[in-house]
Design brief:
The protein contains nine helices and six strands. It is an alpha/beta fold and 205 residues long. Strands 1-6-5-2-4-3 form a six-stranded mixed β-sheet, sandwiched between helices. The longest helix is centred in the middle third of the chain and has 18 residues. 44% of the residues are buried. The structure holds ligand AR6. The site of ligand AR6 has 25 residues, from strand 2 and helix 3. This is Macro domain-containing protein.
């Protein structure tokens, strides 16, 4: 993946890597991938945004650059977003159909308040609700809050996986509305955290 990324031709490789059970211990709807999320042709990708929803660095910057200027125009209409919540827009020049902008917690600030886990998990469950409400069947999450916002990788992966599992388990009809849930890492530390924790949350059936 790294070589292809540098050569700028990632799309086919990225799609090939989205096959079910990319590692043997996932249940059939969960995939892990390490790539640039802007290349993924899933129905919805989840951006790690801030409360303004007007763009920034990291994955937010990459998504806005790849989507083109119409994305920020639509975001300007949304009147921001609370931490722990998410809002949905079109995807413009991106290969996906929708972008879900989730605002993860700043780790150290929210840990002091004891709200970090609830806020991080809220981003995941709200994103899944928005996916279903908008007729999307596949979603790729970036590793929310694990960059600038300082969330430790394993703690973030544990929160993310727990939220997704809890959402799927809460209503048996939900699973039928979803084809694929992808956890898209960018750095090795996040990929390793998911590889370690996915079998615990989603053992092979
Ligand atoms: N594709 C997939 N993942 C990526 C990409 C990419 N192209 N680029 C970075 N990541 P961050 P946060 C990973 O800092 O911590 C922004 O300025 C990265 O390795 O983007 O939630 C916003 O506007 C990390 O694992 O988001 C906010 O102000 C993950 O994306 C603030 O940063 C999230 O890192 C949000 O901070």
């Amino acid at each position: 993946i790294a070589d292809l990324y540098e050569s700028g031709d990632l799309t086919q490789a990225a799609q090939d890597d989205l096959r079910p059970n990319a590692t043997p211990t996932h249940n059939s709807k969960i995939s892990l991938i390490r790539t640039d999320i802007t290349k993924l042709a899933v129905d919805a990708i989840v951006n790690a945004a801030n409360e303004s929803l007007l763009g920034g660095g990291g994955v937010d910057g990459a998504i806005h650059r790849a989507a083109g200027p119409e994305l920020v125009d639509e975001c300007e209409e949304l009147d921001g977003c609370d931490t722990g919540d998410a809002k949905i827009t079109g995807a413009y020049e991106l290969p996906c159909k929708k972008v879900i902008h989730a605002v993860g917690p700043v780790y150290h600030t929210r840990k002091r308040q004891g709200t970090h886990t609830k806020l991080l998990q809220g981003c995941y469950t709200r994103s899944l609700d928005l996916m279903v409400e908008n007729g999307c069947r596949s979603i790729a999450f970036s590793a929310l809050s694990t960059g600038v916002y300082g969330y430790p990788s394993e703690e973030a992966a544990e929160g993310a996986l727990g939220a997704v599992k809890g959402w799927l388990d809460a209503d048996e009809k939900r699973s039928g509305k979803v084809d694929r849930i992808v956890f898209c890492s960018f750095l090795e530390k996040d990929e390793k955290a998911y590889e370690k924790l996915v079998p615990r949350f989603f053992p092979q059936s």
